[in-house]
Design goal:
- The chain has 275 residues and is an alpha/beta fold.
- It folds into two domains: 128 residues, Translation factors (Elongation Factor Tu (Ef-tu), domain 3, Beta Barrel), CATH 2.40.30.10; 117 residues, Rossmann fold (3-Layer(aba) Sandwich), CATH 3.40.50.
- The strands form four sheets. It has a seven-stranded antiparallel sheet.
- Helix 2 links the parallel strand 12 and strand 13.
- The radius of gyration is 19 Å and the shape is globular.
- It starts with 6 loop residues before the first strand and ends in a 20-residue tail after the last strand.
- The model has no long low-confidence stretch (mean pLDDT 96).
- It binds flavin-adenine dinucleotide (FAD).
- Flavin-adenine dinucleotide binds next to strand 7, strand 9, helix 1 and strand 16.
Amino acid sequence: MIEQGTTVHHDFAIRSLTVTNRQEISPGFVRITVSGPELAGFVSTGATDHSKLFFADPATGTLTVPTVTPEGIKRPEHGTVISRDYTPRVFRDATEGSDAELDFDFLLHGEAGPASAWAAAATLGSTLVVGGPRGSREVPKGATRFILAADETALPALARWIESIPEGVDIISFVQLSNDFDAAYLEPAHVHRAKVIWLSKEVGSLERAIRNVGPMGDDTFVWAAGEATSLVPIRRYLRNELGLPKNQYKVDGYWKQGEPGRDHHLPIDPTDPED
Ligand SMILES: Cc1cc2nc3c(=O)[nH]c(=O)nc-3n(C[C@H](O)[C@H](O)[C@H](O)COP(=O)(O)OP(=O)(O)OC[C@H]3O[C@@H](n4cnc5c(N)ncnc54)[C@H](O)[C@@H]3O)c2cc1C
């Protein structure tokens, strides 16, 4: 029997940080490292943790950020708040002689999105405003097998899953890529540990791969994240055909084709929302 991992809540903070490094980790991915005094107290221990990153309104060039008050989060009266969810990839606490640092890995998908455009242009000294994470959920307990499915946007979270799942627990992973060269995003040790199978962006390839795994007992947990619409058949298969209870799967729409800044809390399949 699988149990949801415990969620640890964090005090919500909005931090203004400075870019201290940028590194191309594959042709499609840039790792942006941020640092600064406001990073003190940052915590992120869960594989699916996410921070809200705030970006300037492309129409006005103005960065509008909410404030955290004792009464809650306050939106400013003027300006448009533009935020996107990103996975804190690695947090390195301060040590004697080095400041705390936090890495975010951005898929560069073009100039149309404020986040992708910002990451493409960010240089040392650029400012990045980071909200949260609000909490961290531990890996589900009791699973003897994890099936992980991701597109590029979910690769940072996939890497965190692989690092969080206890040794000895079986992992099978499917990753859908538009460009083969982005397979370089994952370290060989991750690819080996999680038995990563690379798939093309051909419609239905992720669903077929998951179907080919065959029957899933009550010891298997499935996580799938990526483009929301393409995940609908996968969720239907897990939930309706296999009848997995919700403690055995999590399907998360990380972005939606043609829908800028989509809220991932919205159901990916509005005809069949989560109970
Ligand atoms: C919990 C969570 C964690 C995430 N972690 C990461 C992460 O670590 N790294 C990361 O790169 N992304 C991550 N994402 C996805 C990221 O938030 C979205 O891709 C987001 O839409 C990017 O914002 P944007 O401003 O660049 O584009 P938007 O303004 O949101 O979109 C502009 C246009 O680009 C399209 N678009 C958006 N994303 C993509 C894409 N990946 N490929 C092609 N077209 C796209 C949209 O459909 C829209 O038409 C995460 C999402 C969630 C919900």
